[in-house]
Amino acid sequence: MDIWGAFSEANVRFIFEGFYVTLRVAFFSIIFSFLIGTVVGAVRYMKLPVIKPILASLVELIRNLPLLLIILFTFLAMPELGMKLGAERSAILALSLFEGAMISEVVRGGLLSVDKGQIEAARSSGLGYLQTLWHIVLPQGLRRMVPPIVSQFISLLKDTSLATVITLPELMHHAKIVVAQNLGYTIPVLVFVALLYFCTNYLLSLLSRRLEHKWV
Fold first, then answer.
1. Contact between 2 and 185 (Cβ < 8 Å)
2. Which of helix, strand or coil describes residue 84?
3. Rounded to 5, what percent of the chain is helix, strand, coil?
4. Alpha carbon 120 to chain centroid, angstroms
5. Where does the pLDDT of residue 206 fall: very low under 50, low under 70, confident under 90, or very high at 90 and above?
6. Terminal CA-to-CA distance of the chain, rounded, Å?
7. Which residues form the domain of 106?
8. Please, are residues 58 and 37 in contact by the beta-carbon 8 Å criterion?
9. What is the dihedral of CA 177, 180, 181, 183, to 10 degrees?
10. CA 47, 133, 142: angle at the middle one, nearest 5?
C-alpha cells in the first residue's frame, strides 16, 4: 500500500477534477428531477382522466428499469434517433428521468397525505381547485416530502458513479485511472473517494433535518 504515492499532488488534483464533474452532474440532475417529479406527481394527484394513466404507465416503466440501462440508452441509442448528447448530458438526462419518476411518487404520496377536510374547507371558502392545490395542499405536502426527497437526491449523487460505463470523467472514473497506475494506490484512493461521497451525502442529510425542523 503506497499512501504517499496515492496522494501525490497530481493524483489528488485529478481525483478532485472528477469530483467536480460528479457534483456538476448531480446538481443539474437534482434540479431537473425535482421539476419533473413535482410536475408529474402533481398532475397525477389531480387525476386527469387521459393524462393520469399515461403518466402512471411511464412512471412505472422508468421505475422498473435499471438505471444503468437508461444511461446506456441515452448515450448509445439517442444518437440513432438523431440526438447526440455526449456523456455528461446523457448522464444528466438519464438521472433526471429516473429520479424524477421516483420523486413523482413521493410528491403524489405527500399530496395524498393532506387531510381531505382541509381541502373541503378551502373549496367551501371559495378557493378554486388549483388555488387549493397551490395554497393548501402543496405547502403541507412539501413538509412531509423533504426527508424522502433528500434521500432520493443522496441516491442520485451515488448513482452518478454508474455513468463511468459511458466514460463520463466523474469521480469513480478518475479514481479507477489513478488506481490503474499502481495497485498499491487501491485502498488509499478508494477510502478517499468513500470519504468524499460520505461527506457530501452527510451534508445533504443535515440540510434535510434542518428543513424538516424548520417547516414542522
1. yes
2. coil
3. 85, 0, 15
4. 34
5. confident
6. 49
7. 3-215
8. no
9. 140
10. 105
Q: What is the DSSP letter of 94?
A: H
- Confidence label for 68 from pLDDT (cuts 50, 70 and 90): very high
Name residues whose C-beta falls within 8 Å of residue 204's C-beta, 6 or more positions apart in sequence.
Answer: 150, 153, 154, 157
Cα separation, 161 vs 172, whole angstroms: 6
C-alpha cell at 96: 433526471
Residue 8 has pLDDT above 90, yes or no: no
CA–CA distance, 111 with 141 (Å, rounded to integer): 5
Residue 64's Cβ-count burial label (10 Å; 0-12, 13-18, 19+) is exposed
**Could you tell me the CATH number of the domain that includes residue 63?**
1.10.3720.10
pLDDT of residue 45: 81
What is the structure's pLDDT at 194?
A: 94
- Which cell numbers in the block locate residue 3? 499512501
More confident call, 83 vs 138: 83
Model pLDDT, residue 33: 95
Between CA 40 and CA 174 the distance in angstroms is 35
Q: What is the pTM of this model?
A: 0.87
Number of domains in the chain: 1
